[in-house]
Specification:
Mean pLDDT: 92
Helix content: 25-40%
Number of helices: 8
Amino acid sequence: MLTIHTADLLLPGGGRAPVPGGAVAVRDAEIVSVGPYEEVAAAHPQARVRRWPGLLTPGLRQWHGHWLLTRVYHPDPREADELGTDPIMGPAFDALAPDAARMAGSVRRGIQRMLAHGTTHVGLGPRSGVRQAVARAGLREVPDASVLAPPVWDGPDLDPFVEGHDLPGTVHGPLTVGEPADLAVFDVVDEADLVARGARTCVATVLGGRLVFRRR
């Protein structure tokens, strides 16, 4: 399957210039073309086209995947009346003391919420007990043992920009022909708007060429 993803503005990363009306062509799990939409579409006239609002970027990197999945409880929507909808962490997590069955559900929901923030790469550390669940979801592991350390702020955040601060510090790497098709789309006007409003503006996440999240 050949698909072209295009948006109002493409930020390919790696120090390359923004591309107004840019596009990324994806064959199966791999990027096959990056550039202005007209050029990409001309090179792949049979491709399916997905048009997105806003900004198209590489997928984001979440350093604290281990903490977000093992020391945070992500409530089930059916628990909203009792627990609310926000992630539960710190003393509140300890007081809740979720058992293994509840944590298994929390891990699945936590992964989905990472994907809903444009995350394609996560830090787990060498002994993380959630590696299998992360691998099943297709998320790519960041090989850095330091991710087991506690976050430097009051608690981990699903938004990778909280620690990455800017786009170069937050994306997993540039969009490159021949590399896995890990992309994110944000409903913002430019990079400054994205940094200011954060990854909660994500409207779509593509992981290995698969559309794994789409805001409805």
